[in-house]
Fold this protein.
Amino acid sequence: MKLIDGNAIAQEVLAEVKNRVAKLSPVIPHVAFVRVGEDPASVSYVTKKQKTAAEVGMKASLKVFPESVSKEELFAHLDALNADSTVHGILIQAPLPKHLPETEVFNRVSANKDVDGFGTQSIGRLVQELPGAFAACTPAGVIELLRRSGVETAGKHAVVVGRSLIVGKPAAVLLLAKGCDCTVTIAHSRTRDLPTIVRQADIVVAAIGKPKFITADMIKPGAVVIDVGINRVPDSTKKTGYRIVGDVDFEGVSPKCAAITPVPGGVGPMTVAMLMQNTLNACERAQSRG
Ligand code: NDP
C-alpha cells in the first residue's frame, strides 16, 4: 500500500507557484478573502490560506463582516474588489449565514477572479473543458494528487461518493474530462446498495462528511482511495478534545488499497495549494490581457 502524501505534494505545487510568482515581479498576485462571521473552522481555514499566500510571495487581504451583514453591503464590497485591478482572486469563505443566498454571492465575483471556482461561469467552463477554467480547489487537489502520485486514470472506474457543488460534482467532472478519462459514477445519500457500487471502483473519492463511512468491505483489492472528509470526533486524549478523521476507515481500508490518502495530510493541504495556483493563474492571465 502506498501512502499518498498530500503535504509533500502540496509543497511541490507551492514551490512551483513560488517560482512563477517571483517571475511576475514587480506584479504581486493578490488574493482577497472575505469572511462573514466568526465560525472557528472558517477563521482557521482563512488564516491558513493567508499564511500560505505569504509563504509563496503573494499578497492576501481579508475583509471580515459581522454575521448580520446585508446582501447589499456584501455585494458592494465584492463589486469594489471586482473593479480593483490589483486584486486577482476573490474567495468568500463558506459557509455563509442562512440569510445570504450562496449561489448569488458566488456569482457576484467576476469570472476572471473566481479562484474558488464556485460561480456559474466557472462551473460551465469546467464542464465545457475550456482551457483556463477555474476548478474548485478541493477537487482540483484530488486530481493533482492522483496525477503526481502516478495513478493511471484512463479507462478506470472512479466512484465519487458525494454530489456537493464544492467537492463531489466538480470532482466527477474533472475525473471524466479528457486527460483523466475515467468512467465515473456519482453516488449520494439516495443511492441504492452503495457498498456494491463502491466495490466496483478502481478509484474511490469519498466526500460525504461522515467519519469512517467507507469501510474495508466496500473496497476492491488494489483500489486507490482518496479521502476528502474532514470530521471532528471527540478525543479526550487531545488538548482540543477532538481529533480529525476522514470519511474512510483508514485502518481497515488501507491494507486492501494500492494507494490511499491519510487524513489529515492528504487532500486538505492540496486545497490550499490549488487556491494559490488558481490565484497565480488569474494574475498571469490578467497580465497577458493587459
Ligand atoms: P456536503 O454535506 O455538502 O455533501 C455530502 C455529500 O455526501 C452529499 O452529496 C450527500 O448526499 C452525501 N451523503 C451523505 N450521507 C450519505 C450516505 N449515507 N450515503 C451516501 N452519500 C451520502 O459535504 P461537502 O461535499 O462539502 O464535504 C464532504 C466532506 O469533505 C466533509 O467531511 C467536508 O468537511 C470535507 N471537505 C474537505 C475539504 C478539504 O479541503 N479536504 C474541503 C471541502 C470539504 P445528498 O446530496 O443526497 O445529501
The chain is about 40% helix and 15% strand.
